């Protein structure tokens, strides 16, 4: 059965018990990303402390891959400088483009931690966008947060 | 209320199928391939696009190998033959839907056909030729659609309204997946210029009561466009019986090639519409100062057409005619009855759309508690079962029923009970895989 190669236990664990889920204050930017081919969506907020990501909070609906991906991303990026977090995002994109090449997953294992479990997704072109949605939202929100003049609390961006 | 689910015995409700599934499968080369490490291909996605029988592939190949030329131009023998084959296909398709030959316009697909009408209606407002202004849409006019429409029969009308200042109105849906016609007489009124409605929902499977809608629309002088993308491939459709002004459908959903669709229009209506796309083939006289246009159908067929695809669609229609559309419909109805019963017997499965076969086609959308449709689709794919997941280009419908997306199975002439059984087993496998097998209710 090929299914296990995509649905690693780590992924199903993140899906069932997502880390960091829920929208929180304060934040400097909030973005809403949708996947127009399937209707998956995520609302994601970024709170910066200087140039460090102090918090990422999110709500969304979608398949196990998209929901587990945002949870694993939360673990990877909170507490890290924006530039480092986005570089990790680039590594995740590289993993998604690896077409299941084990050498790529091996090279990125230390950097991507739990997120390396998504290597199996790269063999299913239709699902790559599910795994990438949250990372695209983070990139977008971080750019806006860096450009934002003020922190928002208790309201909508 | 106590609900008990009685499990049907294996083989329950399997009516004899009108079509010889094994013989038909032998006509479809793709059905002999395997997927995902040797699994038999169980293709339940004909609603997205159908597979093609060998006769359609042969017709296209024969055209290119032996007759290829641009139709309706050229003085050579190949041009004559290409024109003959192109027009013979038009005649066959016209016969298939009970239309006059000159009422059949070839388009790229359903989407293209709908846009051709939508742009003609806004072009009418600025047409220099007074005879083209009859159906002009403008401020104060209303266009009516339904909440059940595919994006292809919704977005072009939204855009028409934005271009012209007209107002878009719509008929809603009932909880059981049918059109809510209680306010038909107010939504369709003397301001209505056109009603665009699907004959069979691509997501719910619902077959709509078009008689009532056509009667009301015509009573107030409005045109009616019927989206036949999911009906023409699956049931007998006769434009005279339909009574509408336009019928649109796609070749690739009815065993034909991609890149060809049909806009049927009542001749007097087509003749009063200005063109959408302009250029070669559709003109009468061209001068630097301006041009005049051919009568329908050529007025709406600018450029060298998709000739081989039209010929292929002609072969597809011939294949369907040999099976008999009554048989195709009865075949799918038997499969649908069985599939609805089997799926609804699985605890945690909810069918989105009519729960039985009354006024219903073979598109079955469903959700599985605790598993996102994409994940259901992935497990099915692992079993060799190809289905569609997502919002099926009908986002307002999934929103209406409060689900993020659905899994959809659709049937066609090569579908057998074994395919439905594979679907049902795949859904149960998904429940096991994701650990969400609910307690089975006992009768």
Automatic annotation (TrEMBL), chain A:
Gene3D superfamilies the UniProt entry points to: 3.90.1010.10
Protein name: Nitrogen fixation protein NifU
Coiled-coil parts of chain: none
Species in which this protein is naturally found: Geodermatophilus obscurus
CDD domains to which the protein is assigned, alphabetical: IscU_like
Pfam families with a match to the protein in the record: NifU_N
Listed InterPro entries: NIF_FeS_clus_asmbl_NifU_N
UniProt domain NIF system FeS cluster assembly NifU N-terminal: residue ranges: 6-130
A single GO molecular function term of this UniProt record: iron ion binding
Gene Ontology biological-process entries: iron-sulfur cluster assembly
Organism ancestry: Bacteria, Bacillati, Actinomycetota, Actinomycetes, Geodermatophilales
From TrEMBL, chain B:
Catalytic activity: (sulfur carrier)-H + L-cysteine = (sulfur carrier)-SH + L-alanine
Annotated coiled-coil segments of the chain: none
Lineage top rank: taxon: Bacteria
UniProt-listed GO biological process terms: cysteine metabolic process
GO MF annotation terms: cysteine desulfurase activity; pyridoxal phosphate binding
InterPro entries named among the record's database cross-references: Aminotrans_V_dom, Cys_dSase_SufS, PyrdxlP-dep_Trfase, PyrdxlP-dep_Trfase_major, PyrdxlP-dep_Trfase_small
Documented EC number(s): 2.8.1.7
Essential cofactor(s): pyridoxal 5'-phosphate
Keywords, in A-Z order: Pyridoxal phosphate, Transferase
Domain Aminotransferase class V, first and last residues per copy: 42-423
Similarity comment: Belongs to the class-V pyridoxal-phosphate-dependent aminotransferase family. Csd subfamily.
Protein name as annotated: cysteine desulfurase
